[in-house]
Design a protein that fits this description.
The protein has 334 residues and is mainly alpha-helical. 45% of the residues lie in helices and 2% in strands. The structure holds protoporphyrin IX containing FE (HEM) and 2-acetamido-2-deoxy-beta-D-glucopyranose (9 copies). It comes from Handroanthus impetiginosus.
Length: 334
């Protein structure tokens, strides 16, 4: 009706505006993950993941640590798109993320493959490996008594995995400004950096990730003055007996299976294992966030952690018709 009264030019511009509007709406809905995305296409999907995790993680709680770390590494390279699960393929000769240094200590690939098999049996070709990583890591942390966060779904799997891109994963040797930049590059801020580092309250590390701090911090056989010297002596005597020790240590000794505030207490006592943990004290804003977390309740930490995980699990996600739903998590569809 209204269009009838408009000049041709106006009609045209309204038409353009309409198209742009529709485009925006489609574009937006495409870019958004949704809660329970598989409600119609695979209604049991999230339950199958949760049941499998609840059945197996209580027998192997350290796996929860491995899985949330896998989620972090996935999201920091090409977004949360399961690119880190892709295997080296002799045909292209491309080294994939899995082949790179930061990934050599990742674990839990078999676990993801087993969940994928269950979901392929239930509804073939529907549930992405990227969503599986996001759901499994959340459910695994919950199964060990840790925080809960929302995992909207609808991520699609990437088709490219490039080993050299894992340079974007923050290094344990980095200083504060580098860490902050690494996180900012992924849309995460200083608060997220401090809060997500709290995941180091669970899990293990190889000595190689920090032994320089004990034996050769600046290359003259010295130790890192930012680490409590008693703690250095203890680690050298009992855990990492040489700079090349291949021993594994608990990052939060005595409490490495419990998702609590003790990581931050250790950091404040200058007993964080990595240079990157210690670096959090070198910025006054970060330091004050740590102090607040330690003085606050566990519930408050869980809420903050959930908020930051909900940001992390949306990094550069592929949705709509981007990417694909892989049949096998380790290979792109042919
Ligand atoms: C701030 C930047 C970060 C750096 C530099 C960093 C570095 C590291 C390193 C070097 C290890 C030990 C690897 C090994 O030697 O075995 C590790 C372990 C771990 N990281 Fe981080 N990380 C960071 C952030 C995160 C985030 C954001 C999360 C999860 C939200 C996370 C979760 C974990 C967990 C759970 C482990 C233990 C893994 C296991 O037990 O297998 N880290 N991290
Ligand atoms: C492998 O490398 C080629 C280019 O050499 C590229 O086109 C292809 O996408 C890469 N494959 C993966 C899985 O990254
Ligand atoms: C991998 O990424 C690096 C830079 O990040 C680029 O130089 C290289 O060409 C990429 N390799 C492939 C096979 O695409
Ligand atoms: C942090 O490390 C980066 C990279 O090694 C370096 O360029 C920068 O100068 C360092 N910043 C500070 C404040 O030490
Ligand atoms: C980081 O972002 C969150 C919102 O996601 C905000 O509440 C918080 O204040 C920000 N932190 C800093 C240091 O800007
Ligand atoms: C300490 O680092 C320096 C410089 O990188 C190296 O020359 C030296 O061999 C290292 N010492 C040990 C004991 O690894
Ligand atoms: C540790 O390993 C490095 C590299 O393999 C080697 O150069 C160095 O001599 C070793 N240091 C010790 C103390 O064994
Ligand atoms: C801490 O980091 C914030 C954000 O980059 C910055 O504004 C502030 O100057 C830093 N403080 C110190 C003491 O470096
Ligand atoms: C991927 O590589 C791993 C480790 O090398 C191997 O166990 C697995 O069978 C491979 N998966 C596929 C589908 O090729
Ligand atoms: C889990 C995984 O794929 N690890 C790989 C990491 O990189 C090394 C070296 O390239 C491989 O041997 C591992 O299989």
């Amino acid at each position: 009706m209204i269009l009838l009264h408009l000049s041709k030019m106006e009609k045209f511009s309204h038409y353009v505006i309409f198209i742009v509007f529709v485009g925006l709406v489609i574009g937006t809905s495409r870019a958004d993950l949704e809660m329970n995305f598989y409600a119609k296409s695979c209604p049991k999907a999230e339950k199958i993941v949760q049941d499998y995790v609840n059945k197996h993680i209580p027998n192997a709680p350290p796996l929860a640590a491995a899985l949330i770390r896998m989620h972090f590494h996935d999201c920091f390279v090409r977004g949360c798109d399961a690119s880190l699960l892709l295997n080296f393929t002799a045909s292209t000769g491309n080294q994939t993320e899995r082949d790179s240094v930061p990934n050599r200590t990742l674990r839990g690939f078999d676990f993801i493959d087993r969940v994928k098999n269950l979901l392929e049996n239930e509804c073939p070709g529907i549930v992405s490996c990227a969503d599986i990583i996001a759901l499994v890591s959340r459910d695994a942390i919950v199964a060990t008594g840790g925080p809960f966060w929302r995992v909207p779904t609808g991520r699609r799997d990437g088709v490219i995995s490039n080993a050299s891109e894992t340079r974007q994963i923050p290094s344990p040797f980095s200083n504060f400004s580098t860490l902050e930049t690494d996180f900012a590059n992924k849309g995460l801020n200083l608060t997220d950096l401090v809060v997500l580092s709290g995941a180091h309250t669970i899990g293990i590390s190889q000595c190689s990730s920090f032994s320089r701090r004990l034996y050769n911090f600046t290359g003259v056989g010295d130790q890192d003055p930012a680490m409590d010297s008693e703690y250095v002596a203890n680690l050298k005597a009992n855990k990492c007996k040489s700079i090349n020790s291949t021993t594994i240590v608990e990052m939060d000794p005595g409490s490495f299976r419990t998702f609590d505030l003790s990581y931050y207490m250790l950091v404040l006592k200058r007993r964080g294992l990595f240079h990157s943990d210690a670096a959090l004290l070198t910025n006054s804003t970060a330091r004050s966030i740590i102090t607040q977390l330690v003085q606050g309740s566990l519930k408050n930490f869980y809420q903050e952690f959930a908020r930051s995980m909900e940001k992390m699990n949306k990094i550069e996600v592929k949705t709509g018709t981007d990417g694909e739903i892989r049949k096998h998590c380790a290979v792109v569809n042919s």
